[in-house]
Specification:
The complex is a heterodimer of chains A (178) and B (432). Chain A is an alpha/beta fold. Chain A is built from six helices and seven strands. In chain A, helix 2 crosses helix 3, helix 4 packs across helix 5 and helix 5 crosses helix 6. Chain B is globular and about 55 Å long. Classes of the chains: A alpha/beta (178), B alpha/beta (432). The complex binds iron/sulfur cluster.
């Protein structure tokens, strides 16, 4: 069974792609390995100063494999740098109330992370640093200190694509492309 | 049951007679657009997945328009344009608008239709969220990421979900002080920043068809600012005239059936609209310009795919003629064609360039995206501190124009010009 476990980083509504990866870093090309890693170090650095740093200064990766967000996560630009920088920073899943369409699609196409949707506004319940566990197949997230479990929306056809590593490996496995 | 214009275009591209919202269909792509920011990554995906020597599915359908980081000393930005040049040469792509050559154009969404690459009824994907602009000519157009674009490069197809359609009918005559920007900011304010998520936004009504193609582009451009998948306006005589002047490629116009089904229907009367702004930090923060006159400004900016077209500069010049700006006013024409038109176009015998110079605006910058999205530190017009900016661009997110501390108000070029004169947000009717 696939389990994602670790500390969560919590953000609120309308986190747009300029906050996820500011435009000045779009000169980095995600398919070049060193630049992919570098993108991770800038993940979420465009958030207002009221948020704690997502990636520590000098580090390439974040300590948070799970992001919990409010509505409309990833709105704005179509830059694939957004899900890519989160994946490069070590994020395995985002749990948001809703997503902007292109971010959601890019997260799946790249296979960088699982874009879970939550019917409950978890970003008001949990705090950055809480220890949590996502059970991917069971579509639930568990708050480890209390053992409380919350159901997430079933990912449906999305899960196997992310599991395979994105649309290309998935399409090959499924025989859609050679 | 009838179909909407969006459903009909997708049905045809999918080789099906009938499709409906929620259906997942493989569509044949007519145009794939990319630029310097997402092009190199798209090429990276394409070569990784299809092989270093693979050929794109159809060279005549790939259009590459570098525009984002052009006038900068940033080394990686130049490397990225070089990556495009190498790829274009290897693949013999006919449509590449290379910076530093006479073929350079500028902002991709203004150049794409101007160069005849947008035709009614076609399916256009671009690695840029404002690809939805091209629905203004009756095409289906939407933004995608590098991985999807790499897939299209190799196969010419994409699997997409057919969106539900929301209809926005704008009736009546458009007053001279109202622009496409005021119409779309009003609509985004009403439905909310994510109110059209996953939906097609279809704009109809006599007011919409009264607008020029450029003004319709302003409206469709910002569909994404309500989360829309695409914005679309049925083609009319103005569309056909615009398209036929630019391409001889045949096309087939498509229209919504009278019994098409809409997710929602909203009606507006253009005559009751007033000049407005979107306050920081989301485009749905709608407010009337006349109710925000207490907002003092540090800077005015006219440019981008939304607000840097020739019609935008003509509107601004109408207000600025014979006036003086009191805050730094930056002018960035979207494309070379627009920059040239600033010299040729006259109001009462005076060219736009002269009007802006006499009003004390900054010298006209070379065409590109410039500070619309911040960009590298040396980008023209980029904010670096707590500047309060009024801008004709389309996004006012924190840090969008550079500094996280600056505050951006979005408005029509008429409102931006009037505000530049007073130094605070101003309703353009004061100068009309
Ligand atoms: S002008 Fe601005 S919104 Fe338009 S393509 Fe360039 S960066 Fe994007």
């Amino acid at each position: 069974m696939k389990v994602i476990r670790g500390t969560v980083y919590v953000v609120k509504d309308d986190i747009d792609t300029d906050q996820i990866i500011p435009a000045e870093f779009l000169n980095l090309v995600p398919t070049i390995p060193e630049e992919y890693a570098k993108l991770g170090s800038y993940a979420l650095c465009g958030l207002p100063a009221s948020y704690p740093p997502f990636v520590r200064p000098g580090a390439l990766k974040a300590e948070y494999p799970i992001i919990i967000a409010g509505r409309n996560f990833g709105c704005g630009s179509s830059r694939e740098h957004a899900p890519v920088c989160l994946g490069a920073a070590g994020v395995k899943a985002v749990v948001a109330e809703s997503y902007a369409r292109i971010f959601f699609r890019n997260a799946i196409a790249t296979g960088e992370l699982y874009p879970f949707e939550t019917p409950l506004r978890l970003c008001d319940i949990f705090k950055t640093g809480d220890e949590m566990e996502i059970h991917v197949e069971d579509s639930k997230i568990i708050h480890l200190p209390t053992g409380k479990s919350f159901s997430l929306k079933d990912l449906g056809a999305v899960a196997p694509v992310v599991e395979a590593g994105g649309i290309f490996p998935y399409a090959r496995k499924a025989g859609i492309i050679k | 049951m009838g179909m909407t214009i969006t459903e009909k275009i997708l049905a045809r591209a999918a080789g099906k007679r009938v499709i409906g919202p929620g259906d997942n269909v493989w569509v044949e792509v007519d145009i794939l657009l990319t630029h310097d920011v997402c092009g190199p990554g798209t090429i990276g995906v394409f070569q990784r997945e299809f092989g270093a020597t693979a050929k794109v599915w159809d060279p005549s359908k790939v259009v590459i328009i570098p525009d984002h980081y052009i006038f900068t000393a940033d080394v990686k930005a130049h490397r990225n344009v070089d990556t495009l040049r190498t790829f274009v040469a290897e693949q013999s792509l006919p449509y590449f608008y290379d910076p530093g050559t006479s073929n350079y154009k500028g902002v991709c969404h203004v150049a794409l239709p101007a160069e005849g690459h947008v035709r009614p009824g076609e399916v256009i994907f671009g690695t840029d969220s404002h690809t939805c602009t091209h629905g203004a000519l009756g095409a289906f157009a939407t933004g995608i990421g590098n991985t999807d674009a790499g897939f299209i490069m190799g196969t010419g197809k994409l699997l997409i979900k057919v969106p539900k359609s929301m209809r926005f009918q704008v009736n009546g005559a458009v007053p001279p002080y109202i622009m496409g920007k005021d119409i779309i900011l009003k609509i985004i304010g009403d439905v909310g920043f994510d109110g059209a998520s996953y939906c097609a936004m279809e704009f109809t009504g006599e007011a919409i068809h009264q607008l020029s193609i450029e003004e319709r582009m302003t409206i469709c451009n910002m569909a994404i600012e309500a989360g829309g998948k695409n914005g679309i306006i049925a083609p009319d005589e103005k569309t056909f005239e615009y398209v036929r002047a630019r391409t001889s490629k045949p096309f087939e116009a498509v229209y919504s059936d009278p019994d098409a089904v809409y997710e929602s229907d909203r009606t507006y009367d253009a005559a009751t609209l007033e000049p407005c702004v979107a306050e920081p930090h989301v485009p749905s923060n709608y407010a009337l310009a006349r109710e925000r006159t207490h907002v003092k400004l540090d800077r005015a900016y006219i440019g981008s795919c939304t607000g840097g077209k020739i019609t935008d500069f003509i509107a601004a010049a109408r207000i600025l003629k014979g006036q003086k700006v009191t805050i730094p006013t930056f002018l960035v024409p979207a494309t070379v064609e627009v920059a040239e038109a600033l010299i040729k176009t006259q109001l009462d015998g005076v060219s736009l360039v002269e009007i802006f110079a006499a009003a004390g605006c900054d010298d006209i910058a070379p065409p590109s995206c410039a500070a619309c999205l911040g960009g590298p530190a040396d980008t023209y017009g980029r904010t670096s501190g707590k500047e309060v900016v009024i801008s004709t661009t389309n996004r006012n997110f924190p840090g969008r124009m550079g500094s996280k501390l600056s505050r951006i108000y979005l408005a029509s070029p008429l409102t931006v010009a009037a505000s530049a004169i007073r130094g605070h947000i101003t309703d353009p009717r004061e100068f009309m």
